[in-house]
């Protein structure tokens, strides 16, 4: 039948699949021997799933074969209503929460100028608990305006325009107007290639060049200088190998092995100096096992680097070397971190324990050994609900809403306790609002607006209800971050941001992950070292690039929480949110 029955990897571990007479998978056994079974209806739809990791779940389907109801092992239910075209019109989560999706709506709110039926066949509005999202479209169905209206009435909107037909880039995204009123404008040549970006009517990115594979190879950030006191413009130059992988940039040099894995990275990094902050190219080496899993990484400074007396590289980057061990299924069983500090070597050993017969992380025991100190032993436990959702990590509790998404996080087990961080999502899984009520006084809030056509579901803007002491925004304006993206063949690349009234160039790696922010004066304000799983914290210029003690100020303090593509880091949980998932390094 030419069906895949089993897979054996380089460690001689096997995983297998079983099928019914209709060629539908009825069971899957992973490399640890843990089995997930599927019960199917006469049409081959999976109506029941049983797995030790997420329990028993059930699904029913309508006459079109589309999901009608679903129930997970924790008892959370979903009922879907649809129109005659099969489009979902209502999502009922249990008995307490409903999302309504409306299509084809009339009126100027949903239809652009001169196109009274532009919304026909398209989603016009989503009404969710806590937020309503409205879409205005042009005659081609493209989004002209998206308005996000919170339950308290706070509204944020983005506006799109598109290149007219007959011009270079005809039909492509021409501009995005952000809630601040500022506009990102994309410039195209006669072939439709982007040649530059403007921000609020002024040049921001110029001299864009591209490879035949649609990869950016060069550009300049106009209005930025390379380093403090310089006159040369801040510029990027990228090279790619024959496999199309990034090999070099102004920030990075990457070496790839024959299997397409990174074996060595050299990364420009700011470090404390004897008189002022300095820049050095750090080397990070990576090793893998036969299956391709990362087993070790090591970070080192170039020879001849001079650091302040009593200071070491690890005092800034937090990590000299790391080692990883895995079970047959790719779950971490052990991690070893070492830091070569000026006062001696510090080590952290973690041993991970998964619950028997599952892939759920149950706990880890760790030993921290600091130079000249007694070893400190501790244990962190994890708890889950019946559906496998994490509900407790150490002392931090996670409470879920009827939609199965994290609704609250904090130190209290009682979900009704107000001293927590609360979250609001829309039906697309986008987290649009965060409210932190853990402190005294009014909660601090953050509203997030996501991009639409041409950029994908990426964070476009974040808007707080408080103002930082060092904000450069006009008086009376609260903190905000607005991110400007460059569309590329590998996805949207964050290329610049305006944060609290200051412009920053964003330097990214091969994954389009932000690794550095440079201000217009050429100061590196924020940086994030490449490590195995993002375990190290970013370092900032306002602390002189020190982690354990404050160093001399080098740049204004800046808060920036984008991590791997799509991820937003949450200080309150230590997790990174990415639409339908939360990740833990």
UniProtKB/TrEMBL annotation:
Keywords: Repeat
Domain Teneurin-like YD-shell: 323-584
Family annotation (InterPro entries): RHS_repeat, T6SS_VgrG/RHS, TEN-like_YD-shell, YD
Top-level taxon of origin: Bacteria
Pfam families in alphabetical order: RHS_repeat, TEN_YD-shell
Residue ranges the record marks as coiled coil: none
Presence of keyword Repeat: yes
Keyword Chloroplast: no
Listed name of the protein: Teneurin-like YD-shell domain-containing protein
